[in-house]
């Protein structure tokens, strides 16, 4: 078969398959063009998830009639004036967006350049250009895309539901709005206006306000700011606290020179930075903005410009990991208020249920939980007993007695307050200046021990103690094979093991900070960790996970009664330890209830 040149309209439709994957892709390209035109306000409207209509209106610089006629031609752009692809300073530059969209839809463009006496209008239907017409459009540009993929109906069956496509468009507009806080963004769907973000300014405070507009006040209240710079790369942004996590990575927004990207380098760096704080199946929420010389990054490696390539990826990854870890460390004991809100919701629901019992005769009250009357302290066990014996329910499982000595003034004014009681030998209750704090003693102490072990390892190595009587630990072949190659690395962490015949190892020394622990259980857990990884060499990449196992075995167990001095010492240590707001598994170590919230539960407000 002879070689032939493809029809131009067919070429445009092929390009559309790369550039216009779904309605959200078309919206992204059109909004980026509006931003490159210097718009101060951009309004986006869609119908039927973008399939029936996409309208983007901006107040940018507009185009002349000649520029408009050329803009719908392939590879025609005003964004590379000198043809240098190594120094791209705009969002769009390929010159494929408009002709690709016009090849698979009905596109009408109204525009008017600054200072022009009259505007211009052009219509392109399924790749066919119509004659240019004069327009009374006042300023900027309006682009209407109707019947997307009408020229290629086979593409329609690959689209999702209208709700899903609308959500994708909303996400695209939000991502671009967050990168341009000085621009006002409006969005309308089938149900009407969905959001309208007022311009916030381009300074850091304006960016923080825009992030709060797009991601909600909850995110802004449970995040920390970060800023770092290294070798010409500057990173700013807002990182969510580890306890403000999500089931997926949809709330991770990353920008390079104002361009939203989804890049594996950043995804890996974020996972590494939060590795100590989150469970493997949870994801943090954050917004990162990286600025650098355009020559240090290649944005021309993906048709939709969703991926980038750096001249020094190791430098960028180190910058991201270091900045995130430093920001999380600055939060110290802070924990997200999401667990507190969840607890308040449960308490409020139970309070409403307790107050909704029916008092009509002949109808039994409906309880919201199962209740055994035999468990009531008022249920007598026999008439022959002394009267007070019927109310004897045994010793309380909480040391709620008031302290004989008033708490120190510094404790009462501290962020986590002064310890008042220990409930069920598991939870420490402390009184703060404006509420109370409930601390999970095991989870909190586990984090404190873990951070101390990491500090020891980073400074002089983990201190270790010689066992008076070595402990023999028996293991099956699989776990033993995974453990033996890692013995040198474990020795660096303070755990000295030796092979002891077939199917066993001997524990000679253990980390001094752990004290007297169950060495057999500790070694078995570490062997399980290594066997699950499947590669003993990966231990060097999982030293923190081994230290976390150490910490879990040494930490104060639930069920241990603490003295007032021990409880207050735990609180003070939490306040000065980075990451103490969550345990090594990503669970919160404490929740804080404000006095105002408690008063609401009792109807006092």
Describe the structure.
The longest helix has 19 residues, at 441-459. 34% of the residues lie in helices and 23% in strands. The strands form six sheets. Strands 1, 2, 3, 4, 5, 6, 7, 8 and 9 form a nine-stranded mixed beta sheet that branches. Strands 10-11-16-13-14 form a five-stranded mixed beta sheet. A five-stranded antiparallel beta sheet has the order 19-20-21-22-26. The relative contact order is 0.08. Helix 2 (23-36) packs parallel to helix 5 (162-179), helix 8 (264-273) packs parallel to helix 9 (313-330) and helix 15 (519-533) runs antiparallel to helix 16 (543-554). The protein folds into three domains: 8-197, Histidine kinase-like ATPase, C-terminal domain (Heat Shock Protein 90, 2-Layer Sandwich); 216-330, Ribosomal Protein S5, domain 2 (2-Layer Sandwich); 333-356 and 395-605, Ribosomal Protein S8, Chain: A, domain 1, CATH 3.30.1370.100. It starts with 7 loop residues before the first helix and ends with a helix. It is α+β, with helices and mostly antiparallel strands and 605 residues long.
